[in-house]
Request: fold
Amino acid sequence: MRCAVAAALGLAACAGEIIPRDGAWVHDPGAVEDDTCSQFFEVPSDPYGDFSITNTGDGAFRIDAGSAEPFSCTLLGDGAFECPSRFENEETLTQYNVTISFNVDVEGTFSSATEGAGEQHVTVNCEGLLCPAPSCSYVVPFTISAL
Reply:
């Protein structure tokens, strides 16, 4: 929409926007980085796998990985995107009197309509007397490409 308005006004302001192609994509994770969690629990691996992208308009798109709840992302311009709180969960372990919350944010950049890279930022918080640490985090870099 912004590009259509800019085109109508004779502006070239949208030349740097990259819109990802709708359809099937593949996610290829890298090695876990900046890990402060593995001393407390086994950090789960981020699986390689297929997912789909659907552009929803107004600079947004939706990702459906099939194995998880679909989530929304926002294009920020020049290929950059963010998917805040792509996964959130809170679990109370009554036997230990602790509450653990998980949050995953995604940020990245599309280098073209069919390729991109980014990072998933995972934060784990623990509340309660028996928590080994109040919080920990790790980062999983990734590349993505359209199929």
Residues 1-14 have pLDDT under 50 and may be disordered. The chain has one domain: 18-146. DSSP finds one helix and eight strands in the chain. The longest helix spans residues 2-8.
